[in-house]
Design brief:
Blueprint (H helix, E strand, L loop, with lengths): L2 H15 L10 H10 L5 H14 L4 H6 L2 H8 L5 H18 L2 H4 L4 H9 L6 H11 L9 H9 L9 H12 L3 H17 L13 H7 L1 H4 L7
The chain binds a DNA duplex (13 and 12 nucleotides) through helix 3, helix 6, helix 9 and helix 12.
Length: about 230
DNA sequence: TACCAGGAGAAAA
DNA sequence: TTTTCTCATGGT
């Protein structure tokens, strides 16, 4: 993928959807909690769970750890996978406090911080990069299922490419640009939720021109099952 | 009713 | 090493 291709997609998405103002969290810690809770879950459900934590007055690492796992799971219920996410959120909070909190972590270089996030049970590459980009404002491109789907359909990324290779492809094409990565990922998600779904509504797709030139077989969803 | 959603870890092959 | 299964609520 060339810089020109990456920028062309960005411009088309931005023109179609406008600025997305991500991430919708009031504090870096809330962004990190949201990144864990949104795993394989729609954001509207995550908002309910975060609302529960706020109502309990526990949207803080120490307060979350002070809750029993059952109480925490109950608060997280609307976000789905609540037992799994309660354990993951507690693991993250323990790590967060052990590390010294946001003020200490923000002084680490990005590769070190990324490696340390990977050491937390329940934080994989996408969640780590969400946290790096939206909470720590590091120039890390977040790759998700929408990114794979969209750029696969555009013919700009081969199928089966691993996470790190896709991330590197974007970062190499665009250069380190936190603001751009922030907006780009948000636009891909917005586009994915609205148009570029497993059963795409390509007639409504602002990228149809790019799709047609890149990969005519997949553009109109002709190879997708009806 | 079935599909899908801002994944990750464990188990099985 | 790679693939498959499990976790679960809520909207369309």
């Amino acid at each position: 993928m060339t810089r020109q291709q990456a920028r062309a997609v960005f411009q088309a998405l931005y023109h179609c959807w406008g600025p997305q103002h991500w991430w919708p969290g009031e504090t870096p810690f809330e962004v990190m909690v949201g990144a864990i809770l949104t795993q394989n879950t729609s954001w509207t459900n995550v908002e309910r769970a975060i609302g529960n934590l706020k109502a309990l007055g526990v949207l803080e690492a120490g307060a979350i750890l002070a809750l029993s796992e059952a109480s925490l799971a109950e608060a997280l219920r609307p976000s789905g996978y609540f037992n799994v996410k309660a354990a993951r959120l507690r693991a993250f909070c323990r790590w967060y406090l052990e590390q010294g909190g946001f003020g200490v972590l923000r002084r680490l270089d990005t590769p070190t911080l990324r490696e340390r996030l990977f050491s937390v049970h329940g934080i994989g590459p996408e969640t780590a990069d969400d946290i790096l980009l939206y909470a720590f404002e590091r120039p890390v491109f977040v790759v998700d299922a929408y990114t794979r789907r969209l750029f696969g359909r555009l013919g700009l990324l081969p199928e089966g490419l691993d996470y790190e290779s896709i991330r590197a492809a974007f970062e190499q094409a665009l250069g380190p640009d936190t603001a751009c990565f922030n907006e780009y990922h948000a636009l891909i998600v917005q586009h994915g939720k609205s148009v570029c779904r497993p059963r795409p509504r390509c007639a409504e797709c602002c990228l149809s021109r790019l799709c047609n030139s890149a990969n005519p077989d997949t553009v109109q969803g002709s190879k997708q099952k009806a």
